[in-house]
Design brief:
single chain; 128 residues; alpha/beta; Rossmann fold; three-stranded parallel β-sheet
Length: 128
């Protein structure tokens, strides 16, 4: 963000979308270090949004739930996947394209009034 903000200040603004996790908006037993680091991303996002809003820089974050990635493959065997999917209101694992869509929306110029948000993209998991 340091380099992005410096460049955006020279060009009149822009949009930054950070990558957090739902572990940055809720806690998970046994994942304190990961959760703390993702809470830090959300906090940094919110503070930067406040600090640079007047300069035309919007800062938001996506907070993905379980997404079909290599990291998720390492973490979740088939049994774990089934258990997690049963806890997700949509009943399934998200796809990388769904996160990309949220990032695209947050970065879009016509979304010029959204800043300082950590948007959960999690099939409804954090709405419970």
């Amino acid at each position: 963000m340091k380099a992005e903000i410096a460049a955006m200040l020279k060009t009149g603004g822009g949009a930054i979308v950070n990558n957090a996790s739902i572990a940055g908006v809720i806690g998970f037993n046994g994942m304190s270090v990961y959760s703390a680091s993702k809470h830090a991303v959300v906090g940094l996002t919110r503070n930067a949004a406040l600090e640079y809003a007047q300069q035309g820089i919007r800062v938001n974050a996506v907070a993905p739930g379980q997404i079909e990635t290599e990291m998720y493959d390492r973490f979740a065997n088939e049994e774990v996947r089934e258990q997690i999917n049963m806890m997700v209101p949509m009943g399934r694992t998200g796809q990388p394209e769904e996160i990309a869509s949220a990032v695209k929306w947050l970065a879009a110029p016509d979304n010029s009034y959204t800043t300082g948000q950590g948007i959960a993209v999690d099939g409804g998991f954090t709405s419970q």
